């Protein structure tokens, strides 16, 4: 198996090293693991691509590249230029912090897996929830390191990957507990915290210039039953199937009832 890995925390991030270990085990002795990751941190860039400027790429080792671009750029570069031949799987992560509930739509880690799906490849985003149960561990990524291989293997071998147009990809979040505290894997929906909105914190520099820091909010508030954050804070690895199609089908039916001019 040939696997491409990327992330949004940057080429030197510890979560990428965890992901490389996971990918090596999934690929097997005869497999290949290629790394194309951002040269600098790209957290919060979502599915951004550097459409209006070129991105410098630097080869660091065999099958290991740093790209001055987003995770989606890295996937594009890997699949369409740097790797000679087809790729069986794209893994994005392991992100430092959760990409559940509202965080999902901001995440560059999700953007990498999303771009894989748009390119016709299998994509999985992996993130490690941080909380009181793991933040003080020698390895806060212990849950991901201990359970990532099994989770990815099960998704590759058993999960649906269909789609004639917008293909499925998967969002995986590991709970904020030690590896021994993981209860299992839960297939859940994307949750909604409700009050976890991004905001701004204004500051004035000594020079008088004004700056705005973007800031988030509390991450541990559980979402509803059967959703990602609820599963994570209760000790489960959450897996959510996703597509790039953003259409709200129920609203579309209602909309057609009031905008009925089109008969196509």
From TrEMBL:
Q: Which NCBIfam families match?
A: PRK00346.1-4, surE
- Cofactor binding comment, as recorded: Binds 1 divalent metal cation per subunit.
Looking at the keywords, is Metal-binding present? yes
Gene Ontology cellular component annotations, sorted alphabetically: cytoplasm
Which gene is transcribed and translated to give this protein?
A: surE
What's the EC number here?
3.1.3.5
Give me the reactions it catalyses: a ribonucleoside 5'-phosphate + H2O = a ribonucleoside + phosphate
Q: What class of enzyme is it?
A: hydrolase
Q: What is this protein called?
A: 5'-nucleotidase SurE
């Amino acid at each position: 198996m040939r696997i491409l890995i990327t992330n949004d925390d940057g080429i030197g991030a510890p979560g990428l090293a965890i992901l490389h270990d996971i990918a090596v085990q999934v690929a097997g002795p005869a497999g290949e693991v290629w790394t194309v990751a951002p040269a600098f941190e790209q957290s919060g860039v979502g599915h951004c691509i550097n459409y209006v400027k070129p991105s410098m790429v630097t080869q660091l080792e065999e099958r290991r590249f740093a790209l001055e671009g987003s995770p989606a750029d890295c996937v594009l570069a890997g699949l369409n230029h740097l790797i000679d031949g087809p790729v069986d799987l794209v893994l994005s992560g392991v992100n430092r912090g959760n990409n559940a509930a509202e965080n999902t739509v901001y995440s560059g880690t999700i953007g990498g897996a999303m771009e894989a799906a748009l390119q016709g490849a299998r994509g999985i985003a992996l993130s490690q929830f941080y909380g009181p149960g793991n933040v003080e561990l020698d390895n806060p990524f212990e849950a991901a390191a201990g359970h990532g291989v099994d989770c990815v293997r099960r998704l590759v071998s058993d999960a649906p990957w269909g789609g004639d147009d917008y293909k499925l990809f998967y969002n995986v979040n590991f709970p904020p507990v030690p590896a021994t505290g993981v209860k299992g894997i839960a297939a859940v929906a994307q949750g909604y915290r409700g009050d976890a909105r991004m905001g701004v914190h204004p500051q004035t520099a000594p020079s008088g210039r004004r700056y705005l820091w973007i800031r988030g909010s509390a991450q541990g508030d559980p979402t509803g039953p059967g959703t990602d954050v609820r599963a994570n804070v209760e000790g489960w690895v959450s897996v959510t199937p996703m597509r790039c199609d953003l259409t709200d089908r129920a609203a579309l039916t209602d909309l057609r009832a009031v905008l009925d001019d089109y008969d196509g």
